[in-house]
Amino acid sequence: MFGRDWTEKDQSVIEHHDYSYIVYKSFLKYLYTGVISLPMQELLELLDLAIVYCETKLERCCIQEIKRGISIQNIDFLRSIADKHKKEDLKIFCLCLESRNS
Q1: Quick check: 44 and 60 in contact, CB under 8 A?
Q2: Which of 64, 69, 27, 72 is nearest to 45 (CA)?
Q3: Which residues of 15-34 are buried (b: 16+ CB within 10 A; e: fewer)?
Q4: What gap in Å lies between CA 37 and CA 34, rounded to an integer?
Q5: Residue 96's CB: how many other CB atoms inside 10 A?
Q6: For the segment 25-81, what is each residue's pLDDT rounded down to a tens digit?
Q7: Which Pfam families does this chain map to (predicted)?
Q8: Nearest-5° angle of CA 58, CA 61, CA 65?
């Protein structure tokens, strides 16, 4: 982005509007500290950002945090997120939790 023919190479400030400020801030915090502390909605957004930037370790950490926050109320939604991102381990976790609570 900062080399060759990209327009960003000459900009002093680069704006991104794909994700919220809190998610970008958490992304940078994770890169420097390895710590994630976000509510579920932002955590899902951070997972998406990690996938876009191919940060597989962050993806795994996000999935672990998501698993900790799964409840009966959000399990269907989180399973759909797992399907969307093709995260089989999260999908299987949701299915196992559902079968235990049926």
Answers
A1: no
A2: 27
A3: eeeebeeebeebbeebeeee
A4: 10
A5: 10
A6: 999 999 999 999 999 999 999 999 999 889 999 999 999 999 999 998 999 999 999
A7: BTB
A8: 135
**Reduced 3-state DSSP string for the chain:** CCCCCCHHHHCCCCCCCCCCHHHHHHHHHHHHHCCCCCCHHHHHHHHHHHHHCCCHHHHHHHHHHHHHCCCCCCHHHHHHHHHHCCCHHHHHHHHHHHHHCC
| pTM recorded for the entire structure | 0.80
Contact in structure between 35 and 58 (CB atoms under 8 Å)? no
What is the C-alpha separation between 53 and 35, in angstroms, rounded? 18
Distance, CA of 79 to CA of 77 (rounded, Å): 5
